[in-house]
Amino acid sequence: MTDTRDEFETSAASTGPPPLLRFVAAKAGGGVVSLFLVAVLGFFLFRVLPGDPARTMTRSTPVSAEQLAALRHRFGLDQPLYLQFRDFVIDLLHGDLGTSYIYNRPVAELILERVGPTVLLVGTATVLAVLVGLWMGARAAWHQGGPVDRWFTSVGLTLWSVPTFWLGLLALMAFGVGVGPLPGLFPVAGMSSANVPAGVVPHVLDVAHHLVLPCLTLVAVIYAQFMMVMRTSLLEEMGAEYLTTARAKGLREDLVRRRHAVPNALLPTVTLIFLHLGLVVAGAITVETVFSWPGLGLLTYEALRVPDLPLLQGTFIVLAGSVIVMNVLAELVYRLLDPRVRDS
Amino acid sequence: MSAPPNPTGAAGRRLAALAEGWRVYRADRGGLFGLAVLSLVVVLALLAPVLTPPAELDVTRAGGAPLRPPSAENWLGTDESGRSVLLLTWWGARMSLLVGLSAAVLSMLIGTVVGLVAAHFGGWVSTLLLRLTDFFLVLPALVLAIALSTVLSRGVLTIVLAIGVTSWPQTARLVRAQTLTVETRPYIERARALGGGHRHLLGKHVLPAVLPLVFATTTLTVASAIIAESTLSFLGLGDPAMISWGSMLKSAMDTGAVTAGAWWYLLPPGLGIAVVVLSFTLCGRVLETVLNPRLRGERR
Prior knowledge:
The complex is a heterodimer of chains A (344) and B (300). Chain A has one domain (25-342): MetI-like (MetI-like fold), CATH 1.10.3720. Helix content of chain A is 75%, strand content 0%. Chain A has helices spanning 2-13, 19-48, 53-57, 65-74, 81-93, 107-142, 147-160, 164-178, 200-237, 241-248, 253-275, 277-291, 296-305, 309-337. In chain A, helix 2 packs across helix 5 (81-93) and helix 9 (200-237) runs antiparallel to helix 12 (277-291). Chain A is globular. By secondary structure, chain B is an all-alpha fold. Chain B has a single domain (29-48, 84-299), classed as Orthogonal Bundle (MetI-like fold), CATH 1.10.3720. At the A-B interface, helix 2, helix 7, helix 8, helix 12 and helix 13 of A face helix 4, helix 5, helix 9, helix 10 and helix 11 of B.
């Protein structure tokens, strides 16, 4: 115990910028580099790899050589690659993601319109999945090897093995359309109905009604990861001496778990939750496609069908970029939460 | 020199290790279930051209009426063009397994090479590779796979490539960690002292020690690769000429099987994916336990 305290004091007394500030700067710098890599990747994927974007854009329609040349000139494709990349980065920094081919509107505008629904869907689903997953994971670990553990683990693993979109299709058929005598209980598509009376409360209720099926589908598939992470994390704490101390104090088993074991197991779980955010985003793409939820996932689907390369590039950069930003934030939060890693 | 006398030599030692591994593996019911299911599915998939008439997969020569529920003729009903759903699901298994396995192998190759190089050479190479690995680890793999399969020409190879190049970071991290552990052992130092070059060290000493763990992870990667394949096919990025479980579900959605309540069309391909993915996951988890004794106490 005293050793750790000594370490803390020496590091606090050392000269130079405070370690926390240095840490934040390093993490933020890493994040910026990652975001730049996303931009490079986006450029490479959608400008370099397709060979001739003008041809890809006009894949389904016959065009003359002059038309192709005009298209190339319009999109600046007749310039050398490094100049194209420079222009691309400058545009990106100005928030200009190009013009969508199908909508004939700025990509940034289209994306901004769709961010809200995706944040609502992904946010609600993540919060629910984390709550359910952590609760179940803690229970499973506490009764390791028992029937609760076996049931939670096998149900979670099974749901995790199921493709998100298939579960969505089944939910849509069973609860949206209705099977046999069962009527459709929830709307089958979109985010709101046209015939809802004016006012805030009816609108919120309507959106919530539309949200139920896509959200629960997403939760069902992703909660298992959080459960397994929590379970493993808590199992590592199980033999710890402070738990014996807590029990020796006469605490009930329930309190030992809630007040002592779970808070400690929670810390390593935080970063892993954010590391899995990419999978949540992946799930959102297919869930939005199945339920026609007007978010970034559906926009991606619309873009890849054509394919609308500028739009797809935009959604790629925004989705990948936001996952990276969330991860950097997670590392910062983790650092603030856990004094043990403050000096590592 | 201090090794215990072993009359059977290296081969015998390996055989004994294998037998011990199998003993641990056998104790897990989930692992046995996974192995049994996978063997059955693989055999059925391989025998599909022998046991079933491939001509009936042709839309123009389909036997039944469109979107009919299960009957004595078509046990699992028919799809939108009157083909047997049972037949489609059977043939779809070939595609899903093929793509899943190939993509996992590709991912394993990339991950192993990156991990080995990052751990063995150190210095700026290692820093760069680690940085790259972390970047790809955070990047949403499906989003990248969608981008890749959109810009490249449609086909099986593209799907394999798209999944393979987006799913290697976990393997790379694992191989790196394992290589670092292995390289601290005395026999590596001995080989180095005897003048073994990088290729000799990595090929003869490090790789054999790392490979079993890679194998276990790859089993888990197959599971996620099959899900990724079905997702990409579902989004319409697969080979349109091929039948896979994902493309079946895509046609089901596109032709209104959901609103028609055609559960017989939706259930078989999805259950196929779920059962195969679950089996690979179960096998992979047990293999991890077999190879990593530290996990043994945790799960039984």
